[in-house]
TrEMBL record:
Keyword ATP-binding in annotation: no
Gene3D superfamilies assigned to the protein according to its UniProt record, in alphabetical order: Cyclin-like
Full protein name: Cyclin-like domain-containing protein
Coiled coil: none
Gene Ontology MF term list: cyclin-dependent protein serine/threonine kinase regulator activity
Domain called Cyclin-like: residue spans: 36-141, 154-241
One record GO biological process: regulation of transcription by RNA polymerase II
Keywords associated with the record: Cyclin
Pfam family, any one: Cyclin_N
Region described as Disordered: 1-20
Species for this entry: Wallemia hederae
Entry similarity comment: Belongs to the cyclin family.
SMART domains for the chain: CYCLIN
UniProt cross-references to SUPFAM superfamilies, sorted A to Z: Cyclin-like (SSF47954)
Amino acid sequence: MLLPALASSEQASASPSREHGISEELEQALRIRGAALVASAGYLCKVPQATICTAQVLLQRFYFVSSLYNFSVADIAMGALYLSSKLEESPVSLRDVLNVFHRLITADATADTEYTPMSLYGPTYYEWKDNLVVAEMQILKRLGFDVYVQQPYALLINYIKMLDVSSNHAVKQRAWSYVNDTLLTPCHVLFNSATIACACLDLACRDVGVALPATSDSSTHWYQLLDCTLEEMQCVQLWLLRTYTAISTPLYHDTRTLTSKYKLRDYVH
């Protein structure tokens, strides 16, 4: 069975970005910003959720081996989505990816004006095109072409059926949403898909007030039968809570202008 690459404890505790003076809080905010860009761009490009998921995981994985100081989060987000569209066999044109990201990054989100795409023969288009091609190449190179991503959606559906909560629409919807939200975090590089699916299902059931099975003496719980530990589940859930908190901070709002490595360097120094 092919298993996805997970970050080592050393990589998890000291990422390359930290060596360049980027704080843990700023790195988390930029990771969220990059993953959110991928999600928005994927939706606008009309690619399947599986393609968006793979791209977000590749972005998170990339910044465990490379620094935000050296690689713009906007470029890596573009490269990850374009590469993922090939890996998941949901092809999207390079020009569509470029126009969508250009719209998301450069246009004022509050302006009620029609967006004009870049000229196909203009210098801006060629600059963005070069950035995307280089980013895709760097992702493949720095990840050693290890781009397999095991997605948790199928496992989540199986667990919902196995635990007999498939009739509860609120549980299913919340659990699915929590899985999508974990893609804004490094969880998919730190934990396996089974742990993520269990953590999201557990959180959804607690939200709705649905009790999940355990033995009469509470010596064995449902997640233990799925090779998952309580500590790992709680770590995933804490990452989700940290992400929800981070999104509401002024620092996350500032990252709208920090998707370029050059602006990030000015901000850090």
